[in-house]
Write a structure and sequence with these properties.
alpha/beta, Metallo-beta-lactamase, Chain A, 7-stranded mixed beta sheet, 14 strands, globular
Amino acid sequence: MMKEGGTLKVYILASGSKGNITYLKVGDIKVFIDAGISYQKMKKKMEAYGEFIDDVQALFLTHEHHDHTMGLFMLLKKGFLKDLYMTEGTYLSLSQEIRDIIPNLHIVKADTPFTYGNLNITPFMISHDAKEPVGYVISDGNKKIVHITDTGYIDQNYHNLLENADLYVLESNHNPVKLMASPRPFLLKKRILSEKGHLSNEDACWLMNRFVKNHAIWVVSHISEDCNSILDIEESIIKIFDDPTKIEIYYASQEGLPVIEI
């Protein structure tokens, strides 16, 4: 169970193709998920919330892509992180320069739960063009968070694991019509639309409608700046959800979000 006074707080410091990082605070536990912006930006964004970056104890990586690891080297060089969690595939995809300065490395495996302090964490496989990407289900025994970015689809075997969370950080990346009409190279369009790419608005809404039974917060993340819009996402919500009022929505961006407490 959660420690006394251990309200679970979620801070989206940045979200999108230019960088991704989430800060979780549960009582005395303070961790990052990904490190996809520069160290100086991390520090400034944390200070804007009244938080201090050198209080962060651990980092959970989802995969090795630059927009999730951009600030990793400098973050490690500062020396205050105690623990890093990632899959073996992610670890082997990092540069030797980064691997040489990792303090306490913990290799995680999809479908193998572990604990960090009083948090129960279950990594699960996602589908992206990275070496061994994962999403995370994080619970304090009272509240449950699902964190998924950068996936082309979610295997139905995980649906039971992912349902009935209190908060979802889940991407709704693009409107396929806008994507195909964009000036992006065809191979990039094909990658984004593939099973190892990103969720479209309708895909994300279908999943959220499946996962949420009563009520949940949806932090809509990794929104394409040129191939999507809030209006497009909301049209998909109205079209697909059996009851749109069962979700409370926040739209994440590079500017971050106000702190969300659950």
